[in-house]
Amino acid sequence: LHPEKKCSWCLGDPLMESYHDLEWGVPVTEDSGMFEHLVLESFQSGLSCRTVLHKRNAFRSALKNFDAESLLSFTETDREAFLSNPAVIRNRLKLDATLHNARILVNFRERHGMGFADFLWDFVGGTAIDGTCQGTWPATTPQSDELARVLKSAGFKFVGSTTLYAHMQATGLVNDHHVT
C-alpha cells in the first residue's frame, strides 16, 4: 500500500507497516489467533503497539506459541525464565493474567457452548463493526465496554475496555482503517 493509503500509526516503521498491511483488521476466526491477540493486547496495556509488536516473536517463544493448552503446564521455572527474559515485557501481573486466561480459554467451549473466536464474532453479530475512522480512534466504545463486562464475568483478567477495543481492531471485529 502507498503511505497515503495507510493508517498514520504505522508509518515509518517497516514492521508496523507490514503488520498494518497484512494483519491489523484482518478477521481472525481461530481461537488460537484470538488468544494471541488477547495476550499481546493485555501486555500492551500502558505501552505502545510498536513495543509489543517488536517483541512478538520473543513472546511466541516464551509463551509456547500462545497455545492455551500448553500454557496450562507452565511451571515455576518457566515463569522465572519469562520474568528474567529481556526480550519480552517482564510483568508478573500480566503473565499471571495470561496463564489464568489460558485456563479460562481452554474451558470456554465447554462452559459457553462455542469457541472463543465464535463467541467474539457472535458478539458483533457475525460481521465487523464499521468504525470508519476519519481522524483519531476512540479508546473505548460501548461495544468494548460491554465486551469487557462480559469477559470479566466469564473470569478473564486484564480485559478492560481499552484493551478489548484494541483487540477488536486488531482481529477485524472492528474495521477502523482510515476511510482514505
Q: What characteristics describe this protein?
A:
10 helices, 180 residues, mainly alpha
Compact summary:
The chain is an all-alpha fold and 180 residues long. The chain contains ten helices and two strands; from the N terminus they run H-H-H-H-H-H-H-H-E-H-H-E.
What does this structure look like?
It is built from ten helices and two strands; from the N terminus they run ααααααααβααβ. With about 180 residues, the protein is an all-alpha fold. The longest helix has 15 residues, at about 90-105. The protein starts with 13 loop residues before the first helix and ends in a 5-residue tail after the last strand.
* Radius of gyration, taken over Cα atoms and rounded to an integer in Å: 16 Å
Mean pLDDT over the residues: 91
Output the helix-strand order: HHHHHHHHEHHE
How would you sum up the global shape?
A: globular
Contiguous uncertain segments of 5+ residues: none
Give the termini separation: 12 Å
What order do the helices and strands come in, and which of them pair?
Blueprint: H1 14-22, H2 31-44, H3 49-62, H4 68-71, H5 76-83, H6 92-106, H7 108-112, H8 116-123, E1 129-130, H9 142-153, H10 161-170, E2 174-175
Parallel strand pairs: 1-2
